[in-house]
Task: structure prediction
Amino acid sequence: MNKIASLLMLSFLFLMHACGNKYQLKLNSPKTIQIDKPLEISVKEKSGNPIDSVQYFINGKKIANNEAIDIKEYKLGKQAVSATIFFEGKSKKLNNTIYFLNDTPPTVYTYELINEFPHDNQAFTQGFVYHDGYFYESTGQNGRSTLRKTEIATGKIVQKIDLDRQYFGEGMTIKDGKIYQLTWRKKVGFVYDLATFELEKTFDYGQSLEGWGLTHNNKYLVKTDGTERMWFVDPETFKEVSYIETYTNKRKAEKLNELEFVKGKIYANIWQQNSILIVEPSTGAIEGIVSLKGLQSKAGQEGEDNVLNGIAYDTENDRLYVTGKNWNKVFEIKLIEK
Result:
């Protein structure tokens, strides 16, 4: 009896599998496609199975034309492609996935060293901001995490609070008289009064996995979580309203860390690397890569842990500053196209 039941079940599964494979959703590029090339979507039918009509979708949005689709205006990264086919009074949904890549390679930059300033070599830098003539900094490590304000010329700490030892401080940014600070794995952030450092509220994360880097574009907070994603967060409700995924013309960039907005672009550190990515915030396209080779050793550090992880920008005077985890210096640099 058990043998008969098993055989019947296997036969049923085989038939279901066979029926489910009558149709196949095909793309003209099977895995990735650069955005300067048209995307073509089609349904392949097997054994002469009839199709009355088909509706095509990208990320749930119906598209009118499934041949030679212009994808230049899409964000980069993972895209859900689907089709609903109608046949013999029935319908069936087919799914596929493709990744959109940038259409040009990133510009490579090196740097000119303009100036050096002292930095606390016990500060495990996670967030770094220039504001009104001072550096503001969020530092990490459980039991050592802080929020601080320092003099640029001397490195002297003029204001500081310590985080509870359960929290590992991460990225921070300043917007509209408030300081926003992330923590790593507790999925909670803090909002402080800029002048007093008084804690005003906390907020929870949404879909983002962890707290890494933080900046803002005057409307939204922009947050990284250790993946290739940058999340745009409403600073009032803290809802994650959208995200971009960072890609070159060949691959994604993961482990995005400290962030800063510079001239309309997002500058991003990559964890354990002494480099900066220059990202277009509307699409996620990596337009530039900055090599800061040599600065880590100048700051008295080496190895994978104590690497570059601080980007601050003085908008009024067009000055770019960088530092890193336990570095003894902050560097003012100027980017040079290589």
